[in-house]
Structure formats: C-alpha cells, structure tokens
From TrEMBL:
The gene is polX. NCBIfam families: PRK07945.1. GO terms for molecular function: exonuclease activity; phosphoric ester hydrolase activity; zinc ion binding. GO terms for cellular component: cytosol. Keywords: Exonuclease, Hydrolase, Nuclease, Plasmid. Pfam families: HHH_8, PHP. This is DNA polymerase/3'-5' exonuclease PolX.
Amino acid sequence: MAAPGTAADPARAPGPVEALREIGFWLERARAETHRVKAYRRAAEVVAGLTEPEVAAHAAAHSWQELPGIGPKTAAVIAQACAGEVPAYLAELRRAAAPIGAPGKPLRQLLRGDLHTHSNWSDGGSPIEEMMRVAAALGHEYCALTDHSPRLTVANGLSADRLRRQLDVVAELNERLAPFRILTGIEVDILDDGTLDQRADLLAELDVVVASVHSHLRAESEVMTKRMVYAVANPHVDVLGHCTGRLVTGGRGTRPESTFDAEMVFEACRQYGTAVEINSRPERLDPPSRLLTLAVEMGCLFAIDTDAHAPGQLDWLGYGCERAVANGVAPERVINTWPVADLLTWTRSHS
C-alpha cells in the first residue's frame, strides 16, 4: 500500500512539507526511534508555517538550517523538494518499505476502517486531523478516534469536559473530510471492579467504545476474570481491547499475559455481542494464537485494529490480518469489514 502523499507516479516530486511528512510516515511504520520521527515532523510544521515568499527566500539563500528545528538532514530533504526532486532519503525509504502481513492481504482489502487509534489529545504523537487524513489516504472509509480515559494519567487521559470538547472538534473535521468519517470513541479503562472510567451518559453518545485493562495486570485469575466479564457485559462496550495486556517486544520491554478464564470471558463476549480485538501492534500481537483460536471456536466477533499512536502506525493492520487468517477468523465476523451504517447500527444496539 502506498504511503499518503505518494503519487501513482513515484517520480513526481512532492513539496517539502509533503516530503517531510511522508518520511515521518515511513519511519513510524518501520518502528524507528521516536526522536528521528519527531525531527522530520517538527521540520514539516516549521516549513508549513512559512509564507510562500519566505519559502522562496530560504530556498534561494540555502538558509534552511537557520530555522529552529531544522538540521542538516531535514534541510537536505527540503532543498531537494524545493528543487523539484524526489528527496534521496524519501526515495530510499520508499524502496525499503516491505509489504506488511502479505498472507493477510485479501482480508486487509476487505477492512473498511480502524476502530482503535490515538491522537495527541492523549498519548498519541499527532493531531487528530493529521491522523485522520492519513487514514483516509490509506483507503479507510472510517476511523474511530479512541483516546484514553481520565484515570490513565500517564497517557493524558481525557476528562469528561475534554472529551466533550473533542466531540466538537470531530464534528467540525467530519464536515471537511467527508465522505471519510471519523467515528467518535474512547479507549476506556476497565477499573478494578469492572466498571468503566467514564460517565455512562458520555459513553452512550460515542460511536465506538473500546474497553481495556491497563492497571493491576498481574491480578489473580479469578479477580481478573470477574473484572473483564463485568466490563464486557456493559451495554456501552463494543470492543474488548488487547485482552491479555502482554508485550512481546519493543522499547517498553516485555510483559507476560494477564491470567483469566478465557472461556468465560469469550463466552461473555459472544453472549453480549462484544468484539474481541485483534491488536495489530507488533509488540502486542494480542490475543496470542491459542486464545484467538479459542475465540473463533466460541463464535466471537472481532475487530482488527492498529492501536495507532502515530500516522505511520495506521498501516499496521496487515499484521492483525495475517494473524486473523492464520487462526481461521472469517471475514464476516470482523466488524470493521462492515459498512459504516451497519457498524453503527450494531454499536447502537448495545446501548
């Protein structure tokens, strides 16, 4: 799949802002170090803030490095783009980009959207509009914005007031981005007693509610099982996020799976119509294959999501699709293969 901003003719030279953002996309997709990504995205914002005469003046004077946040590498990209060339580093990243999850490609082509993403309103790295424009460019018909809930302070979770303000922002963006649709949502914390970390009246207004455990992941199996079943049975919950909480690799280190009675939890998902998330993040790969197979056997619905915290991570759906195909998930059981009207009819039927 092409990156946003990549023309059908790869020889077309992008503008400097487009080139810098596309480099950021490829670096995020490849899980590059955060500081490298930020350097290119910061430079893109600096150039985007210039007037056309200012851009022309810096291009003529070769003075890009005089601007704050622009170093030799980003200056080279800007200069080459201003000269009508495809920047050498961008061309290199395009050539190096390998397909993600090739065995899952047929299923990936059926996905209409992503139901678990984050913006810089919580712990994501980019504004809502940038995330959603990239989602649209990747071919999504819709994408749910699911920033964190208030008690996850380490992730700058949204209070009720901030969430209401975000709903206004999403409404305005939907007018400009149509026919692409941003679905309102939240990744709400499942608290120790199984209740949810946001007001019920607000949850009822949202298009998609993903419920996840982020605290006390090492609780005893019986305690965790009751906690998860209680949450899954909540009529506002549409998707059970990264159910084991495991980390198999990545900069945060590894983390073992939470222990719980998977048959009981997945039976609750089936009974109450809550989809089990297939989390596509490479460091999660959650649920593990044995549990994914069990959920299939028990007749659960699924949501294949990226849990993206940056634009380039929105292209990770292939990882989840590959695992879904390998474990026998039927496409019609994946709720984000459904048209948006059918999806919203289903989510509203819960609450």
